[in-house]
Sequence to fold (341 residues):
Amino acid sequence: MQIGPYRIDPPVLLAPMAGVTDKPFRVLCKRLGAGLCVSEMTTSDPRFWDTAKSRHRMDHDGEPAPISVQIAGTVPAILAAAARHNVDHGAQVIDINMGCPAKKVCNAWAGSALMRDPMLVARIVSAVVAAVDVPVTLKIRTGWDREHRNALEIARIAQDSGIAALAVHGRTRDQQYTGVAEYDTIAAVKAAVSIPVLANGDIDSPQRAKAVLDHTGADAVMIGRAAQGRPWIFREIAHFLATGELLPAPSLEEIRDILLGHLQALHEFYGEQAGVRIARKHLGWYLKTAARADAGETRMVSDDDTASFRRIVNAVDGAADQLRLTTEHFDRLSEAWSIAA
Ligand SMILES: Cc1cc2nc3c(=O)[nH]c(=O)nc-3n(C[C@H](O)[C@H](O)[C@H](O)COP(=O)(O)O)c2cc1C
Fold:
């Protein structure tokens, strides 16, 4: 798939997730096979650009190209200025958020609320495209609610306004994250426009990625929650799409090494205090993935063991302690698994 001058290969992308897709996670997912990783949403309001949060979100030092940065807001001129600011700080692709259902975002009429006002969508998209000389992508939902499923109308506006690729999450805004994603609307969007279309929503395995691509005709898949605690899902999907074969699951040792590297990158990026705190949720996700891998008949590690490890590791504030306890936990897991084998 092509986004402006960039070839996105494999056609498997990391979805923007506020509080999750920070630089350490994007770099990791890229290394493990993602074709493109979209940043967390950055505010378009310049009053907040000098906060620690924005400075981290706008830091792309050492990040592999192409660097895609998502912006959120409601006022065309302000979004245009935000796009320019991010390009000046390293963005090589600008993504506009019209997919986020969060109250904080939608009450301010941003995110997916914008889909209720197609004229405003056209003005925003045109202003941002005109403001920068990098490709601009757009992320939407299928509509506001079941009665207002206007993704097709928005997709045509996007194409006419110069959007380089369009990601569609197969839910309406009022569904938030409930129910299941539907892919018929994404297929209809793909059939109606000639720009690349990315299918998003509930894709959590190589087989599902292939089925969604087959069903929708989309050019790529975008993975969000399934990558939490499982960043190697990108290489698994890419391999299956390329060969029709499933890669073996990563060994426990590889999971441990990926996790320890991820924790260290978080400590370095945010500093020890914030890094240890932010690392806790990622650690929790990796543990869930490990528990799922261990969910066969001969269950080696009980939920109680995992819960008690989480209580202990979540109580420490030091980076060295967090790394040591995690290493020891994985050593125990390895031992239990090798006894079972
Ligand atoms: C924690 C979290 C944060 C998210 N933040 C954003 C965001 O900042 N911008 C955005 O466009 N979508 C955001 N999303 C939506 C995801 O990009 C994606 O569309 C959604 O999770 C569906 O994909 P999935 O089923 O693969 O997770 C977020 C989702 C989650 C779970």
